[in-house]
């Protein structure tokens, strides 16, 4: 079950593409958009993240930290980030496998990957917006823009 808007966002600590631990609580004081994706290098995920990459200034202008979370290992995420030029955090939820995705209610137990869930956490750590899309359905950039405008 996903956390509800108005509730504290579940904390986590995950490694970035270089093995540096990043925790949600460590980002407190800054709003954060968490973007869960199923697989590195897949077509829909790459399309979504390239759109975010190309519109990163919208997040920066709003003072929002963008973090993408996948159950892929950090080495795959690093290769993906280098290939596509992603300048935002890619965090590995590889082990314990899918623990952060489970906390946000977006882990698919049958296939072992995260669903397409996005969450806006305010500077105090409270969930302010979320969207979870079914398999194969990309999240529109307009949804992120609306969420950022609500800050």
From TrEMBL:
Superkingdom of the source species: Bacteria
Enzyme class: oxidoreductase
Alphabetical keyword list: Antioxidant, Oxidoreductase, Peroxidase, Redox-active center
Record-annotated active site: 45 (cysteine sulfenic acid (-soh) intermediate)
The enzyme's E.C. designation: 1.11.1.29
UniProt keyword Lipid biosynthesis present: no
Reaction(s) this enzyme catalyzes, per UniProt: [mycoredoxin]-L-dithiol + a hydroperoxide = [mycoredoxin]-L-disulfide + an alcohol + H2O
PROSITE patterns given in the database record: THIOREDOXIN_2 (PS51352)
Any one GO molecular-function label of the UniProt entry: peroxidase activity
Entries under InterPro entries matching the protein: AhpC/TSA, Peroxiredoxin_AhpC-typ, Thioredoxin-like_sf, Thioredoxin_domain, Tpx_Peroxidase_subfamily
SUPFAM superfamilies: Thioredoxin-like
Domain Thioredoxin: 3-151
Keyword Oxidoreductase belongs to the record: yes
Family assignment from sequence similarity: Belongs to the peroxiredoxin family. AhpE subfamily.
Record note on quaternary structure: Homodimer. Forms both dimers and octamers; a tightly-associated dimer and a ring-like octamer.
Function: Thiol-specific peroxidase that catalyzes the reduction of hydrogen peroxide and organic hydroperoxides to water and alcohols, respectively. Plays a role in cell protection against oxidative stress by detoxifying peroxides. May represent an important antioxidant defense against cytotoxic peroxides, especially peroxynitrite, which can be formed by activated macrophages during infection.
Name listed for the protein in its UniProt record: Alkyl hydroperoxide reductase E
Species assigned in the record: Cellulomonas composti
């Amino acid at each position: 079950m996903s956390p509800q808007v108005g509730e504290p966002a579940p904390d986590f600590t995950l490694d970035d593409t270089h093995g540096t631990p990043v925790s949600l609580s460590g980002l407190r004081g800054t709003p954060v958009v968490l973007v869960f994706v199923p697989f590195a290098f897949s077509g829909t995920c790459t399309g979504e993240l390239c759109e975010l990459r190309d519109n990163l200034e919208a997040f920066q202008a709003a003072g929002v930290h963008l973090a993408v979370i996948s159950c892929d290992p950090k080495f795959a995420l690093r290769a993906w980030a280098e290939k596509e030029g992603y300048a935002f955090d890619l965090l590995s939820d590889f082990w314990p496998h899918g623990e952060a995705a489970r906390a946000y209610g977006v882990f698919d137990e049958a296939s072992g990957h995260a669903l397409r869930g996005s969450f806006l956490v305010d500077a105090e750590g409270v969930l302010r917006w979320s969207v979870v899309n079914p398999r194969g359905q990309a999240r529109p950039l307009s949804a992120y823009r609306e969420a950022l405008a609500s800050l």
